[in-house]
Amino acid sequence: MQRIWPVLVAAFGATYTFSVGNVIAPRLGPDLGASRGEVALALAAFAVVFAAGLIVAGRLGDRYGRRRLLAIGLFALALASVLAAAAPGLWWLVAARVLQGAASAVVMPQTLAIVQVSHGNRARTRAVAAFTASSGVGTVAGQVVGGLVMGLGLPFAGWRGAVLTSVVPGLLALLGTRRLPVDVPDGSERPDLGGALRLGLPLLALVAGLALGPTTAWAWWTSALVASGLLALSWFWVGQGRRELAGRPVLVAPSSLRPPALRLGLAMAVLLFAGYGAFSYEYSMLTQVGLGLTPLQSGLVLAAFAGAFVLAGLRMPHITARFGDRTMELASGVLIAGLVLLGLASWLTPVGRPALWVGCFLVIGLFLGAAQASQYGPLVATVMGALPLRLAGLAGGLFTTAQQAALALGVATIGGAFGALAPPLGWARAFAVALGLQVVTTLAFWVLARRLQHHLRYRMEREGNTP
After folding, report:
1. CA-closest candidate to residue 5, choices 246, 262, 181, 215
2. Whole-prediction pTM value?
3. How confident is the model over 216-263, as pLDDT tens digits?
4. Which structural domains are found in the chain, ordered by start?
């Protein structure tokens, strides 16, 4: 494990960068004159570009060397974070977030691929658990640490200071890349760079339309963005199939998605992270705008959730050993119960009594954090186990593409509904409705988890009976 610590820090930094965006969101409107839709777009731009570049970056790592691509991505991420912290206006910030997303896309698939190919079977399980914990810690630490920095009251410690903290893990991991094992590049396949654009631009159009639609009363051009994004994504998928049949380079080979376990795992990743992305955004808006907490207080309240997430992530091998293939199903049940209780607390909390809501969240948040970690950890192992090691970069790209695209879509859809409902219902009750939508996504996750385990058991039985 000591050999790959730079990889774990890099995974932490990539997800930390996204999460910091959530805690600064309530301050972007007053400081930069941005509407709620524009703020959501600034957050989602990172995840969209991250998602679009992941698979091609994984292929580039396979072709040119993962350690080399990791170092390039870490340097670019640190530079883009400095540009984001110095952004003079909203659209400059959006552009810097796009650069951060592109750099993170280069980093993330290299980290998971290095973890996969650097260990034997037994050690790989522990390494994947550590990777899962570090990337998960980054997701929750962004809000906690970002809130702490914003609350320091120093000259450069507002939202810009929180963004600047993204530089630290990137530079630390960059210094340690020389300690990583040298990999032998495989130059047999040329990545489909054009495919990344054909995926990224429609995704950006779709997310932009969904994010800006509610704040513009669904002006014709926002509906056109959504429609054009969906049509272009359909055209992209049809084109990928034709290119694969013709033997040309593809970004996502349709044949690689034939294993049922992989398809189910990716669908579960979309459901899980759409809910989490929306929850993170809504939490920051509710606590800082609706309840009047400072960024520091908001981050401290989230610490219980974050601590439970981290502890469960670190204990994941023991948790899965205890509950076996039912871990994700049980975790989904606990998460649904916690979401319902938090929704009731949010709906019933009297206006002007933030301490009551905070007390409820500190207790319920422990179960929410542990449950989400217990969904996330086993899911990573399932998806990564669906493809052979020689395609480790592609496997990492597929999983994290689904994760990042879902984060962006969650902020744009569930988060957009939350923002639209806040004026008529109030922040707390709008949050309760949004939690109800997350209950629906969690129920769907539970159904797919059952189907996935039934498929895996059937496959094991069939292979066991094969002479």
Report:
1. 181
2. 0.78
3. 767 788 889 889 989 988 998 888 888 888 887 777 777 777 777 778
4. 2-459 (1.20.1250.20)
